[in-house]
Every structure is written in C-alpha cells, then in structure tokens.
Design a protein that fits this description.
mainly alpha
C-alpha cells in the first residue's frame, strides 16, 4: 500500500464525515407531499455553514487529485 493510498483513504473518510455534517436544504416530507419547494430561495449561508462548504470543496478537490495520482502510481510503481 502506497502513501498516496493512505492519503486517499484519510481524505475520503474526512469527506464522508463533512458531508454528513451538512444541513439538508430540503425537508424530506415536502418531497413526498408535493408542497412548494424553497430550494431556490435567497438564503445566505453564515458561520458554520460557510466553513463546511469550503472544507467540502477543498476535500473534494483533494480526493480527485489523490485518486488520479493513486491511479498513476499503481500503474507505474507496483509493489
């Protein structure tokens, strides 16, 4: 197992954790009842929500980069 694989595993676990921490913008009951959705309402994110979005974006980019690097290194340098 390469170091890049370990980094990919760590980033993926952090990404899963931060996604679970995000608040849902849509109520599940509205999806089944057919009530009007406020999905596109103007609602400014503040405080914790902003930081969670920034961290999610950063971890997503890191996950993609590490996945590409892991695919490259597995082909070039097998154990």
């Amino acid at each position: 197992m390469h170091a890049i694989d370990v980094l990919l595993l760590i980033v993926s676990c952090l990404l899963i954790t931060i996604i679970v921490l995000q608040e849902s913008k849509e109520d599940a009951m509205n999806a089944f009842s057919g009530e009007k959705s406020d999905l596109f309402a103007n609602r400014k994110q503040r405080g914790f929500e902003v930081w969670v979005n920034y961290i999610t974006a950063g971890l997503s980019i890191a996950f993609i980069v590490f996945a590409v690097l892991a695919a490259f290194f597995v082909d070039r340098f097998p154990l």
